[in-house]
C-alpha cells in the first residue's frame, strides 16, 4: 500500500479501528476528496479512512473530524490534527544546496499552517517545526520528493492522534 | 507468524550503515539500497510482536521513516 | 517443491517493497544533467523583472535543461519557474500554425497559411484606415516582448502607419514608476543596481512581496541579513507576506493609506533633525502639488499635519512604529528602497513614487552604494523594451515625447521620413485604447505577447473592445484567454527559439541567443511584423532589417549621445558578456552602477563641480513634491465592507499560460483561492476550504477559502493567475490621471459564504 495518513483527529490505530464503523461520512464531507475508505487488510471489511498524501493530501478543512459519529476521528482544530510529522531531507532539498542554483520554498508556500509548521530559517531555508501536524501537503507538492510525512502511528511514543 | 515487506527511508549518507545494522536484526532480511536512500527489507516475526519490531526499526538512528508495503499473517506456517 | 510457502511470501514481500521505490516524475531531474548536453546557450529567463541570466542546455536540436548563468547578477541562482522552462517550450498546446477566424467573431479558428493570415490581417488594417484614418488602428505590446520587437513595432506604427496608438502592458504595471522618476529626476529608470543590496544597511520594502515576485532578489536580501545581522529590514505591506517575515519591522497599513505613512516618515525625519540640509540645499527643488516652486519651510509646514498620531489614525500603523521606521531609514548609513505593484498600481501611484523619492532626497540617502530608490520592475523587458524605446502612446525612443516638436523632428530625421510624419498628439493609453475599440474609433489592433482578456482591469467592461475590433494577435499557447477574441493568430517563436535583448530592473541589457529552431511553422516576431506591415501598406524601406541584430544596431546607434546611451553594447559584446548596465557609451566602457554620480556615470562630466548631477532636469536638481494623502478610488464602505486586493503567487507567472504547463508548478497552485483573516472567517462562519463569494459593484465570483493571518482583518486577497477565475472582472478601471495606470490593488467587496 502506498504511504497513507489518517484523517485529522484520528485516535491511535487501535482505538480508531475499534471505533470506525466504515460509514464513510468523513470521505463524503471532505472538501478536497482526499479521504479514501480502503480495507486495512486484504479480505477485511468496509475499510477505514485513509489519505494517500502523494495522490491527494489533506488541506486541514477539518470537516471530517467534525462529522465522525463514533469519535474514531476526534473533533479537533487544525493545529491539533495530529496526523504525523513532516521530515525534510536537508541533504537533498534544493534550497540547502549552495551550488545547484535553484530556489524552491514550495513546501513552505503551500503549508496550510504557513509560517507556523514550516518556517523559513533566515528567510530562505525551509524548516519543519514541532507545530507540524502532518497533513501531507508538503509531501504532495515537493518537486524533488525530499519531504515526507511520518504518520502519527509510526512516530515513537506518540501512538495517538491530537485528541487527548 | 507475520511477514512484512517494507522500505526504510534513510537519512542521506546513512543508508549503507543502516542496511548492515538491519541485516543484523533477527528476522530481518535486506534487499539493497535504492535511489541512495531506500532500503528494501522483509521482516518475519510472530504476529503480536511485528508491530514492536517495526517500531524498533523506525526508532533506529538515521531512519527517517518506515513504509510497510505488505503484510501477511498466517496462523500456521510450514518452516 | 523447492520453494516453501514461507520463502514465497518473503519473496513477494521483498518484490513489493522494491516495486514501491518509485521515482518522482520531475522536471527538475533534468536540471543538473550536464553530461547529456552538447552546448550551453546564454540567455535571460523568460519570466520576471529580476532578469536572471540562464544557460539553456541543448542536445541535438532540443533544449533539455536550464541552469542559472554564474556570470550574471544572479550568480547561477534561479527560482523554480526559471529552472523549469523546458516543459513550457515543448508544451502540447503550443500554437505552431497561423490561424484565421474566417466566419467572424464566435466562429472557430481554422489553420491557414502564412500568406493567408498576413493578407487577412493586412486587409483588415487597410480597411480600418480607409474608414477612419491612421488612428483607427493600434498596437498593443508587452513588457515581455524583445527590445527589437518593441522598437520595430513603435517605428512601424508611429512613422509607418502614422498613429501614436502604440501602448502596452507596462502601462498596467510600471507607468506610475516611470512618471515618478520623470517628475522627480527628469529621466526614467533607477539610478542604482542590485549591487546596492550588498551594501545597504537598511532595506525599506514597500508594496512589494519580493519573496514571491522577485525570489532571487529576496534571497539576496535574506542572505545579506544572515551575513550581517545588524542590517535592518522594514517591510510595509497590508499583508503579512513571507517577505515581511524577515523584517525587523513590519508596517501593516490599511490598503491605500501608504501616502500618509510616507509623509509621516518624512515628518518624523524633519522633527528629529535627521534630514540633510546640506544635501537638499544643493540638489533639491521643493515643488507644490500643482507644480509651483516653493521652499523647505513650505514642505515642513505641509508635513505638519502628518504627525505619528495622525498617521496611526489614518493607516492603523502604531505611532511608535512610524517613528521607528523613519529613524531606521534616516539613521542607517545606506538606505535602499524597493517597491513594486503595491505602489504603482494605484490611482495615486505617481504621488506614491514621488513620496518614496522624497525620503531619499530629504536625507541624502541617494547616489551612494546601498543608498538608492530602486523600483522593482515586474516584467522581464518593460524597461529595455518598452520604456527605453518609447513604445507608449506619448513617447518616442530614448526619452523623447511625441508632444515635443524637436523630439519628433529628431526621430523623423533619424528614421528618414518626411517632416511632419509623426503625429503630435498622444495616442490612446491602454484603458482608453480598449474603450476606443468598444466605441469603434479603433477598428483594428495588433496584440503582441500579452493576454489582455485576462489582465485588463474591469474585464466585463473592457473586453467589449475585443469583441468589436479586428484583433490580430501573436500567441504561443492555446489556453490564452485573449484567443477567444482573435481574428488572426500568428504563431510566434518562443523565447530561446529566437534571439533578442531583454533589459531588466537594474538597467542591465542582456542577450538571449537562439538555442533551438522555432517549433513547427512559428516565425520570429520581427519577421511577422515586417511582413505584416509591408502587406498593410507601410513602405518597406522603413524596416530594411534582415534580423533582430540589424534592428539592435539601429537602436544602439540612436541611443548614442542620449541619456540612455548604450552605444558600447555591440551585439558581439552582448554575446560575450552576461549583460551590461547602461549608460555604456563605448565598447570598452564596463557599464554604470551609480547613475548621476560623478566618476561613475559617464554622462556626468568628470570636472562637474558637484558629486551628483541630475542631468535629466534643466537645473540639474531633483524635485521634492508636496503630495498630500488621498484615499483610493473605491475604499471599503458600509455596503462593501472589505478591501479586495490581488497579486501573484511565486509559482505562477501572470496568466499561467507558461507556468501552467509545468506539472510541479501547477500542482503547487492549481487554482485560485481567497485569503481570509481568521477573525473575519470566524465572524462569517467560514472555515478552510469553504466556498466563499466575493461580490463587488462589477461582478460576483466564488473561491475556496484559505484561512490565514497573511491578510489583516478587513482585507482579502486573490491571486490572478487562474483563467477559470478571472478576478479582474471584480475590479474597476480607475486610473492614475498622470500615468494612466489602473488601480488593481484596491477595490471594495462583500464577502460571504456561499449558501
Could you describe the 3D structure shown?
The complex is a heterotrimer of chains A (164), B (79) and C (755). Chain A has helices at residues 13-19, 25-29, 63-67, 106-110, 137-141, and strands spanning 35-38, 48-51, 84-88, 102-103, 118-121, 125-128, 147-151. Chain A folds into two domains: 13-80, 2-Layer Sandwich (Alpha-Beta Plaits), CATH 3.30.70.20; 84-152, 2-Layer Sandwich (Alpha-Beta Plaits). Chain A has 164 residues and is of the alpha+beta class. In chain A, β5 and β6 (125-128) form a beta hairpin. Chain A is built from five helices and seven strands, in the order ααββαββαββαβ. A two-stranded antiparallel ribbon of chain A has the order 1-2. The longest helix of chain A is centred in the first third of the chain and has 7 residues, at 13-19. Chain A is elongated, with a radius of gyration of 16 Å. Chain B has 79 residues and is an alpha+beta fold. Chain B has one domain (2-31, 42-69): Lrp/AsnC effector binding domain/regulation of amino acid metabolism (RAM) domain (Alpha-Beta Plaits). In chain B, 24% of the residues lie in helices and 44% in strands. Chain B contains two helices and four strands; from the N terminus they run βαββαβ. In chain B, 34% of the residues are buried. Chain C has 755 residues and is an alpha/beta fold. Chain C has five domains: 28-89, Single Sheet (N-terminal domain of TfIIb); 99-169 and 381-498 and 517-562, Rossmann fold, CATH 3.40.50; 175-378, Dimethylsulfoxide Reductase, domain 2; 564-613, no CATH class; 642-753, Beta Barrel (Barwin-like endoglucanases). Chain C is built from 26 helices and 30 strands. A seven-stranded mixed sheet of chain C has the order 6-5-20-19-18-7-8, sandwiched between helices. A six-stranded mixed sheet of chain C has the order 26-28-27-30-25-29. In chain C, a hairpin with a 3-residue loop joins β16 and β17.
Amino acid at each position: 500500500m502506498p504511504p497513507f495518513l489518517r484523517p485529522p483527529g484520528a485516535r491511535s490505530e487501535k482505538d480508531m479501528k475499534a471505533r470506525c464503523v466504515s460509514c464513510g461520512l468523513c470521505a463524503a464531507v471532505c472538501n478536497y476528496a482526499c479521504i479514501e475508505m480502503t480495507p486495512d487488510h486484504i479480505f477485511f471489511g468496509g475499510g477505514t479512512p485513509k489519505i494517500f498524501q502523494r495522490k491527494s493530501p489533506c488541506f486541514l478543512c477539518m470537516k471530517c473530524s467534525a462529522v465522525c459519529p463514533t469519535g474514531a476521528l476526534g473533533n479537533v482544530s487544525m493545529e491539533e490534527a495530529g496526523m504525523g510529522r513532516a521530515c525534510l531531507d536537508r541533504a537533498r532539498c534544493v534550497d540547502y544546496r549552495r551550488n545547484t542554483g535553484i530556489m524552491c520554498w514550495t513546501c513552505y508556500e503551500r503549508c496550510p499552517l504557513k509560517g507556523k509548521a514550516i518556517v523559513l530559517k533566515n528567510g530562505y531555508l525551509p524548516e519543519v517545526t514541532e507545530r507540524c501536524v502532518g497533513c501531507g501537503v508538503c509531501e504532495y507538492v515537493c518537486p524533488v520528493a525530499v519531504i515526507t510525512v511520518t504518520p502519527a502511528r509510526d512516530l515513537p511514543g506518540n501512538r495517538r492522534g491530537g485528541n487527548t | 507468524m507475520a511477514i512484512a515487506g517494507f522500505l526504510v527511508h534513510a537519512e542521506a549518507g546513512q543508508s549503507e550503515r543502516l542496511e548492515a545494522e538491519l541485516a543484523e536484526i533477527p528476522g530481518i532480511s535486506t534487499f539493497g539500497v535504492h535511489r541512495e536512500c531506500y532500503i528494501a527489507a522483509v521482516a518475519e516475526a510472530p504476529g503480536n510482536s511485528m508491530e514492536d519490531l517495526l517500531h524498533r526499526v523506525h526508532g533506529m538512528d538515521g531512519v527517517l521513516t518506515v513504509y510497510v508495503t505488505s503484510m501477511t499473517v498466517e496462523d500456521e506456517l510450514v518452516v | 517443491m523447492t520453494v516453501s510457502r514461507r520463502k514465497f511470501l518473503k519473496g513477494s514481500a521483498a518484490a513489493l517493497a522494491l516495486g514501491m521505490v518509485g521515482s518522482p516524475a520531475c522536471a527538475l531531474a533534468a536540471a543538473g544533467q550536464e553530461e547529456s548536453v552538447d552546448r550551453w546557450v546564454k540567455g535571460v529567463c523568460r519570466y520576471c523583472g529580476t532578469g536572471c541570466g540562464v544557460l539553456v542546455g541543448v542536445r541535438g536540436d532540443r533544449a533539455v535543461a536550464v541552469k542559472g548563468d554564474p556570470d550574471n547578477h544572479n550568480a547561477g541562482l534561479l527560482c523554480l519557474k526559471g529552472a523549469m522552462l523546458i516543459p513550457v517550450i515543448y508544451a502540447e498546446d503550443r500554437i505552431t500554425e497561423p490561424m484565421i477566424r474566417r466566419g467572424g467573431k464566435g466562429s472557430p479558428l481554422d489553420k491557414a497559411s502564412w500568406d493567408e493570415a498576413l493578407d487577412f490581417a493586412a486587409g483588415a488594417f487597410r480597411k480600418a484606415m480607409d474608414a477612419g484614418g491612421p488612428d483607427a488602428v493600434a498596437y498593443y505590446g508587452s513588457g515581455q516582448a524583445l527590445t527589437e520587437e518593441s522598437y520595430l513595432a513603435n517605428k512601424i506604427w508611429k512613422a509607418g502607419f502614422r498613429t501614436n496608438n502604440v501602448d502596452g502592458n507596462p502601462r498596467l504595471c510600471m507607468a506610475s514608476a516611470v512618471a515618478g522618476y520623470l517628475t522627480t529626476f527628469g529621466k526614467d529608470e533607477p539610478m542604482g543596481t542590485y549591487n546596492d543590496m550588498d551594501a545597504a544597511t537598511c532595506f525599506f520594502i514597500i508594496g512589494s512581496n519580493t519573496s514571491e515576485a522577485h525570489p532571487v532578489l529576496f534571497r539576496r536580501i535574506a542572505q545579506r541579513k544572515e551575513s550581517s545581522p545588524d542590517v535592518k529590514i522594514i517591510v510595509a505591506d497590508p499583508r503579512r507576506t513571507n517577505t515581511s517575515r524577515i523584517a525587523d519591522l513590519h508596517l501593516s497599513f490599511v490598503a491605500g493609506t501608504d501616502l500618509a505613512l510616507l509623509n509621516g516618515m518624512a515628518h518624523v525625519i524633519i522633527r528629529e533633525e535627521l534630514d540633510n540640509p546640506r544635501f537638499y540645499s544643493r540638489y533639491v527643488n521643493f515643488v507644490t502639488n500643482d507644480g509651483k516652486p516653493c521652499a523647505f519651510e513650505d514642505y515642513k509646514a505641509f508635513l505638519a499635519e502628518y504627525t505619528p498620531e495622525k498617521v496611526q489614525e489614518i493607516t492603523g500603523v502604531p505611532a511608535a512604529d512610524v517613528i521607528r521606521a523613519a529613524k531606521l531609514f534616516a539613521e542607517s548609513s545606506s538606505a535602499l528602497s524597493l517597491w513594486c505593484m503595491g505602489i504603482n498600481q494605484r490611482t495615486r501611484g505617481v504621488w506614491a513614487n514621488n513620496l518614496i523619492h522624497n525620503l531619499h532626497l530629504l536625507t541624502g540617502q541617494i547616489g551612494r552604494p546601498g543608498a538608492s530608490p530602486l523600483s522593482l520592475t515586474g516584467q522581464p523587458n518593460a524597461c529595455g523594451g518598452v520604456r527605453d524605446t518609447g513604445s507608449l502612446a506619448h513617447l518616442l525612443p530614448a526619452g523623447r515625447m511625441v508632444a515635443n516638436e524637436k523630439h519628433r523632428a529628431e526621430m523623423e530625421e533619424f528614421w528618414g521620413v518626411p517632416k511632419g510624419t509623426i503625429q503630435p498628439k498622444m495616442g490612446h493609453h491602454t484603458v482608453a485604447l480598449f474603450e476606443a475599440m468598444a466605441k469603434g474609433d479603433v477598428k483594428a489592433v495588433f496584440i503582441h505577447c500579452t493576454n489582455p482578456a485576462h489582465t485588463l482591469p474591469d474585464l466585463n467592461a473592457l473586453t467589449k473592445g475585443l469583441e468589436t475590433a479586428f484583433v490580430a494577435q501573436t500567441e504561443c499557447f492555446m489556453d490564452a484567454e485573449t484567443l477567444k477574441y482573435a481574428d488572426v493568430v500568428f504563431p510566434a517563436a518562443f523565447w530561446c527559439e529566437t534571439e533578442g535583448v531583454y533589459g531588466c530592473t537594474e538597467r542591465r541589457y542582456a542577450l538571449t541567443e537562439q538555442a533551438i529552431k522555432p517549433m513547427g511553422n512559428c516565425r520570429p516576431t520581427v519577421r511577422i511584423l515586417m511582413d505584416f506591415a509591408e502587406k498593410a501598406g507601410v513602405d518597406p524601406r522603413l524596416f530594411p532589417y534582415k534580423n533582430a541584430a540589424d534592428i539592435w544596431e539601429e537602436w544602439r546607434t540612436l541611443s548614442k549621445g542620449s541619456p540612455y546611451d548604450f552605444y558600447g553594447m555591440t551585439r558581439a559584446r552582448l554575446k560575450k558578456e552576461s549583460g551590461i548596465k547602461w549608460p555604456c557609451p563605448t565598447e570598452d566602457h564596463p557599464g554604470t552602477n551609480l547613475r548621476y554620480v560623478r566618476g561613475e556615470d559617464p554622462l556626468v562630466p568628470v570636472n562637474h563641480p558637484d558629486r551628483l548631477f541630475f542631468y535629466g532636469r534643466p537645473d540639474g536638481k531633483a524635485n521634492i513634491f508636496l503630495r498630500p494623502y488621498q484615499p483610493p478610488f473605491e475604499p471599503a464602505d458600509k455596503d462593501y465592507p472589505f478591501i479586495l486586493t490581488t497579486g501573484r503567487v511565486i509559482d505562477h507567472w501572470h496568466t499561467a499560460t507558461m507556468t501552467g504547463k509545468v506539472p510541479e508548478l501547477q500542482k503547487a497552485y492549481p487554482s485560485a483561492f481567497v485569503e481570509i483573516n481568521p477573525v473575519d472567517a470566524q465572524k462569517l462562519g467560514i472555515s478552510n476550504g469553504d466556498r466563499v463569494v466575493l461580490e463587488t459593484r462589477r461582478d460576483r465570483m466564488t473561491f475556496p477559502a484559505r484561512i490565514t493571518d497573511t491578510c489583516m482583518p478587513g482585507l482579502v486577497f486573490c491571486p490572478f493567475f487562474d483563467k477559470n477565475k478571472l478576478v479582474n472582472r471584480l475590479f474597476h478601471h480607475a486610473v492614475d490621471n498622470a500615468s494612466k495606470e489602473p488601480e488593481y490593488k484596491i477595490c471594495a467587496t462583500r464577502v460571504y459564504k456561499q449558501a
